[in-house]
Amino acid sequence: MSRREENLNHSDQKGLYRTLAVVALPIALQSLIGSSLNLVDNLMVGSLGEAELNAVGVSVQIYFIHWMVMFGFTSGSSTFMAQFFGAKDLHNIRKTAGFAITVAMSVSILFFTAAMFFPHYVLRIFTRFPEVIDLGVGYVRMAAPAFLFVAINVPLTAALRATQQTKLPLYISGVAFLTNTFLNYLFIFGSLGAPKLGVTGAALATMIARAIEMSLTLIVIFGRKNLIGGRLREFFDFDKEFAVKIIKNAIPTTINETMWGLGTALYIAAFARIGVTEGAAVQACNTINNLFMMAAFSVGDATLILVGQKLGEGKLEYAYYLAKKLVRISLIIGICAGSGLILCGKPLLSLFDFTQTGAEYAFWILVVYGCTMWMGIYNATNITGVLRCGGDTRYAMLAEVLAVWCIGVPTAFLTALVLKWPIYFAVLAVRLEDVAKGIALTRRFFSKKWVKNVIRDISGNDTAN
């Protein structure tokens, strides 16, 4: 252990935990709220039947893929926002956020068009059951405007996080969660005189909640003179050279998250083709799993922010040992979260209206998720936190995409549709992609090739040591 690492472990340890709590806990709670929103949706719709639950499960896949595209490009942009914050360059943070919104909106218009005018074709990608498609069409079309709201909200939320204002997105998400839950109650079941819309009602509630979420974010930033707020033209004051720098870093993260999202959606497509019960079990388990996993992913987000700030300040060696400490913390959190998932599995599954067979399938799927969660958290911290904070996005993309598409997707279809394994064994086999990914990421971490300052050429500040 070097003297620098020893100093970090002893003198800076308390400060690190305190800073990590301030940055990561609000992100974790925001992720928990988002996952809880999906849980509430599925619980309410699931009470209508397994076909309805399956319909929502396949319908949200296009929104999940869109979210991953938004997250991917914004994550690549966040590398610059975090390092600009370390260099105390607010003007370039605004420009980065504005450029991210421009790209996100352009892409979201395409998703909006597909969902609004071609929902049948979208749903046929994910399921072969006509009754599920018929139920899902109304959901996909009703929630389509949410694509446009998310395109504005996600980049601005990333800017707030990069400047360590993580509590604000948490409060906004809390309001969106409460709104969505109340509107679900109204529109799914026709309560308090509202129309009874079933699956379509869940989509209407989500769309309205997303609109409110975006509106509150705009009010907080521009209406209350936030740190990153400014004149509108500052956000769109980027030139070609600036845009190319962002795109060069963000394209790999966008491909990374999009291909990961598509691959994950194809896992669902493979499992849902086994049968309606199996598809409903996987959908319920994914929702419960996200309660634990997405919150634990906050360590990766915090790593990008904290280590990226140090890289922007030019403290490259310190940044490396800080990242090492955070990766170790992610392993502990992953083990704890996985254990909690297994312990809470049966009580949470009892909230769903499953047949006895569906409940048995779901329980064993949760056991698989719980036992392998530490690998998922470890890999996510390395990809979304460590490699991206230093702009090493191409390697992160290759590690993720090759593992998912060369191992995960073929394994899902082979075990589910050819070998016809029980659903829980098929889910376990897919986790082989996490093993391969983890080996590649560990080697890259210790190579130190990701320890770079990426803003020097476009900020005008020579901050590298």
UniProtKB/TrEMBL annotation:
GO cellular component, one term: plasma membrane
GO MF, any single term: antiporter activity
One Pfam family hit: MatE
Transmembrane segments: 20-40, 60-85, 97-118, 138-156, 168-189, 201-223, 258-276, 288-308, 329-349, 361-383, 395-417
Keywords (A to Z) from UniProt: Cell membrane, Membrane, Transmembrane, Transmembrane helix, Transport
Membrane topology: Multi-pass membrane protein
UniProt-recorded name of the protein: MATE family efflux transporter
Source organism of the structure: Hominibacterium faecale
